Amino acid sequence: MKVEEAIRYVETRMRKPERQEDRELRKTYSEVFDNATIMTIYDLMSKGYIDIVDFPISTGKEGNVFRGYDKRGNLIAIKIYRVATSNFRRMSLYIQGDPRFKGITRDRRKLVYTWARKEYNNLERLMGAGVRVPMPIAHKNNVLVMEYIGSEEMPAPLLKDSEFDPEEAYEFVVNSMGKAYNQAKLVHGDISEYNILVNGDEFVLIDVAQAVHLKHPSAEELLVRDAKNTARYFRKLGVDTDEGEILRRVRECTT
Ligand SMILES: Nc1ncnc2c1ncn2[C@@H]1O[C@H](COP(=O)(O)OP(=O)(O)O)[C@@H](O)[C@H]1O
Ligand SMILES: [Mg+2]
Questions:
Q1: Cβ distance 171 to 162 under 8 Å?
Q2: Which of residues 159 and 2 earns the better pLDDT score?
Q3: Ligand nearest to the CA of 156
Q4: 190 C-alpha to ligand 2 centroid (Å)
Q5: What pTM, to 2 d.p., does this model score?
Q6: 78 CA from centroid of ligand 2 (Å)
Q7: Closest Cα to atom 24, ligand 1: which residue?
Q8: In angstroms, rounded to a whole number, what is the distance separating the alpha carbons of residues 68 and 255?
């Protein structure tokens, strides 16, 4: 199959903004869907992981998340890391020193691919440890396909935009940190009300690309930072806790 044909095919499977008013959105699309990324999506389509690329759920600093459908008509979330505008330095810091990703590179594209693979691997490990994260489905190059969290009408809102019981959310975070640490041997490294979804009555931890193995030289520092941020956030909501209490529970967590 010729590249042009593949591109044309993918474009028929994408719900793209067309109106003039959607200038911002169109800019996003042209940044995200370079030819290499379209070929990657084409490959995931031919394997049935993706059938339709639906509307964007989020336009982040490094990646964009789209809603989509797989071949069987199930909703999926597609996270696409942009190669051109990625934060090379930040990604390197979280990859170097992780024993799973030896021999890293100065090549921007390869680093972004490693970043997506790392997120997939982290999701697998966390799921295996019993942490509620989106189920990883497939990955290739800079594209990650995972379980979609939300309803047919709308994606699940972030914790920061939701109403919830602070004690319950706090328990979710500390238990997740504990299972990640003891079973998955990972530290999330970016725990916040921006990286937890509220899906009906369950919480889901997301955005795990930066999570590092305990052997990473910054693992302890990141754990302490997560504990500090978690304590500060939940104390404001009236939960009686502090950094030390969280660290103690995480390190002693045996569930
Ligand atoms: N599996 C998912 N299901 C539904 N929405 C998601 C999913 N993953 C991410 N999102 C949405 O996309 C946003 C960005 O995803 P995230 O992984 O936090 O990336 P980043 O913060 O690096 O841009 C999230 O805040 C959330 O709203
Ligand atoms: Mg995020």
A1: no
A2: 159
A3: 1
A4: 8
A5: 0.96
A6: 14
A7: 58
A8: 34
Cβ 68 under 6 angstroms from ligand 1: no
For residue 30, pLDDT over 90 is answered with no
Residues 6+ apart with CB under 8 A from 198: 156, 157, 158, 159, 162, 164, 204
Contact 221, 212 (CB under 8 A): no
- List, in order, residues 6 or more apart from 63 with CB less than 8 Å away: 79, 80, 81, 82
- Asked if residues 70 and 48 have their Cβ atoms less than 8 Å apart, the reply is yes
- Phi–psi pair at 44, nearest 5 degrees: -65, -30
User: Which amino acid belongs to residue 112?
Assistant: V
Q: Convert the pLDDT of each residue in 89-131 to its tens digit.
A: 899 999 988 999 876 677 899 999 999 999 999 999 999 999 9
Q: Which domains does the chain have, with CATH numbers?
A: 3-147 (3.30.200.20), 159-252 (1.10.510.10)
DSSP label at 14? Answer: B
Q: How many CB atoms lie within 10 A of CB 116?
A: 21
Contact by Cβ (8 Å): 233, 161: no
User: Which whole number is the average pLDDT over 56-61?
Assistant: 88
Cα separation of 49 and 208, whole Å? 21
Query: Does 57 sit in the ligand 1 pocket, CB within 6 Å?
Result: yes
